[in-house]
Amino acid sequence: MTDQERTVRPANKRGAARLAAVQALYQMDVGEVDLNDTIAEYEAYRLGNELDGEQYRDADPQFFRDIVSGVVKHQRDLDPLIHTSLVPGWPLSRIDALLRAILRCGAYELVERKDVPPRVVISEYIDIANAFYSQDEPGMVNGVLDAVARKKRAAGLEKTASGS
Fold this sequence. Notes:
The chain is mainly alpha-helical. It has one domain (10-156): N-utilizing Substance Protein B Homolog, Chain A (Orthogonal Bundle), CATH 1.10.940.10. The chain is 69% helix and 2% strand. The chain contains seven helices and two strands, in the order ααββααααα. β1 (50-51) and β2 form a beta hairpin. α3 packs across α4 (97-112) and α5 packs antiparallel against α6. The protein is globular, with a radius of gyration of 16 Å.
């Protein structure tokens, strides 16, 4: 079976949706773009489409919308949670916009998406961080999201750690 013949699994579509959500939130942060306009742009022109010679992976549009709109809706609760998980003296505002978007998406999923195991959420956002950073940032994403998971979903972490 060739790569082109393989069907895209739902997990792959969710991974693509996570990456697109991070990019959309980054775009909203630096460009001060409206939530609805951003979602409409991504759904019409980016998710699964070619843009400027780059092919975007097929993504789960509902999952994408949920993450982006959920982060915006719950940001006032997510930011303090992330802040308390950072190293003292490093406020969230000091972190670059892309890393903030990664942390916010991961924190949102850990708090609101109980259908996704915490270890899956953490692993997915570490992978996204690795796509953009080559220094300490992926480790920081791991540490912060692990701390958030321990505060909000400790039972889910224990289950997966013990193999149940």
